[in-house]
Amino acid sequence: MSMSFYQRYLSPAGRLSRGCFNVLLPLVLLLFAALYVLIEALGSETLTWLLYPFTAWALLVLLARRLHDQGRSLASLLWVLLPIAGPLWLLILLCCRAGSAGENQFGADARLRDADYLTVDIHS
């Protein structure tokens, strides 16, 4: 089943595997930093404000899809409100803990979405 560009990269619906999250999160932050420096060098610091909505949306999509992979809702981001322990717990939850195996209420297993093999039940 082919996914559109919007479904794959811009929609917070669906799931995102831990490995993919651990690659995409630093890439989004690095891209933001590089564009910030470039825009600030070419223009003024006020133009850099244009980056914030796009970066915030990209981070929200990544966080929501990673939480969905573990069967959690976006409300789990409220852990950030607890000083020190909340963001630390959220970091461990998102970067280190595995997602739920198999399908959950947010969709099919992210690790098996693009699998190109046939599973045969031999117990029948």
Automatic annotation (TrEMBL):
The keyword Transmembrane helix applies. The chain crosses the membrane at residues 21-43, 49-67, 74-94. It holds the Pfam family DUF805. Keywords: Membrane, Transmembrane, Transmembrane helix. The keyword Transmembrane helix applies. InterPro entries: DUF805. It comes from the Bacteria. This is DUF805 domain-containing protein.
